[in-house]
Design goal:
Elements lengths: L2 E4 L5 E6 L3 E9 L3 E12 L7 E9 L10 E4 L3 E3 L6 E13 L2 E9 L6 E6 L6 E5 L15 E3 L2 E2 L1 E7 L26 E5 L2
Antiparallel strand pairs: 1-14, 2-10, 2-15, 3-9, 3-11, 4-8, 4-10, 4-14, 5-6, 5-7, 5-9, 10-13, 11-12
Length: about 200
């Protein structure tokens, strides 16, 4: 099946602790497609690690200046075991998320127990990355909250889709922007790691 996103972590990688942070990368799909899942590379071994959960989601880039905007779909949760080593986690949608050709934000939201959960992204320029502060328990904000941090890294995420979608679009229950407590206005923690 065809895919889009970023399937290359590069030589230099960052580990990023992601508890209750929505991590997003903006990527183009060259044709109309029905997305069935998002796949992320995750590890759960950082300080204070414990069993946790995460979900994949897709935002339109119709926010201010191309930022995440309208929520298009939310996956079923994935369970990440305590002390889990690096692995690939598929966040599967109940149906499909029908996308037109263009740019879309592919994101991961994690729960409050994800204090040791980290993901991977390329430590290079040329990407469009955004981190949003949001709470897992009440679902992602729709429309998305304003990004708390942005840079030019490329989040490791693979969207799997079928061409010329014929299945009905996945609907998201309507709800307004959620109120949530913002943390201190500092970027999420980074730890530089070089693969050898």
């Amino acid at each position: 099946m065809p895919t889009f996103g970023n399937a290359s972590a590069g030589i230099n990688e960052y580990d990023w602790t992601i508890d209750e942070i929505t991590m997003c990368g903006r990527y183009p799909i060259r044709e109309a497609g029905a997305v069935s899942q998002l796949t992320f590379a995750l590890v759960n071994q950082a300080t204070s690690h414990q069993a946790c959960h995460a979900k994949g989601l897709i935002y339109d880039d119709d926010g201010a200046g191309g930022a995440p905007g309208t929520l298009m779909g939310l996956s079923q949760p994935v369970d990440i075991a305590d002390n889990a080593d690096w692995g690939m986690y598929a966040c599967v949608f109940d149906g499909v998320v029908n996308l037109t050709a263009g740019n879309w934000w592919l994101c991961l939201i994690s729960d409050a127990s994800a204090t040791g959960l980290e993901t991977m992204y390329s430590a290079i320029t040329g990407g469009t990355f955004a981190a949003l502060y949001d709470t897992y328990a009440d679902g992602p904000s729709n429309p998305a909250s304003s990004p708390a941090y942005t840079d030019t890294s490329k989040l490791y995420v693979i969207a799997t889709y079928t061409r010329n979608p014929s299945r009905s679009i996945l609907t998201v229950p309507p709800h307004g922007p959620h109120a949530f407590k913002r943390r201190a206005s500092t970027p999420p923690r980074k730890r530089f790691k070089v693969n050898v």
